[in-house]
Design brief:
Elements (H helix, E strand, L loop, with lengths): L1 H23 L12 E3 L7 E3 L1 H15 L4 H10 L5 H7 L18 H8 L8 E3 L2 E2 L9 E2 L6 E3 L9 H15 L2
Antiparallel strand pairs: 1-2, 3-6, 4-5
């Protein structure tokens, strides 16, 4: 048992260091690409724009800049029967499951809109390494301080100009402290 445990610990350290190198090089290592992106068919560590979903992301930012609340944006998307991120991924053949689904058909929510409005991946920035587990035996996920995230700019094509993202993000930062 001690030898097996030692082998697993060594393997875990090697995998963690390999993933850290990939993050540092700006390679995407997540299971699923963010809504608006797909993994490149030739290089699974590269994000490419999903034209249809990217148009929805642009619409979400446009509506926010026009003054809509996240709830208002979600209601409009549901009114026009735009597939939520989970339903869209399932419709294009990606087997995606989430604990956020509360109805038979997942709908847009204010929280889903907020996740899009505050995710800097849409500006061409990969921020990875946000969570970890203490070691290979303990499966409890811990959040990592934002200062320790691995951020790499210009790793993929941006959907949203960083100027507009900063406007939206600044508004939410101010609202969180009020």
């Amino acid at each position: 048992n001690l030898i097996n445990d030692s082998y697993l610990r060594d393997l875990s350290l090697k995998i963690r260091s390999h993933l850290a190198v990939k993050r540092k090089n700006g390679e995407f290592i997540g299971n699923y690409a963010a809504y608006g992106y797909l993994k490149d068919e030739n290089n699974k560590n590269q994000l490419v724009i999903d034209v249809f979903a990217a148009a929805i992301v642009k619409d979400i930012f446009r509506m926010k800049l026009e003054g809509y609340s996240p709830k208002g944006i979600a209601d409009r998307l549901n009114k026009f029967q735009v597939l939520s991120p989970m339903e869209y991924k399932n419709s294009i053949g990606i087997n995606f499951q989430s604990s956020f689904k509360t109805h038979a058909k997942a709908l847009w929510s204010a929280q889903a809109v907020l996740r899009i409005l505050t995710n800097e991946v849409y500006t061409g920035v990969l921020a990875q390494g946000k969570t970890t587990t203490p070691n290979h035996k303990i499966k409890i996920v811990e959040k990592i301080d934002k200062s320790e995230w691995t951020r790499k700019e210009h790793t993929h094509e941006a959907i949203i100009d960083s100027f507009y993202f900063d406007i939206v993000f600044t508004v939410y930062s101010i609202l969180l402290f009020i």
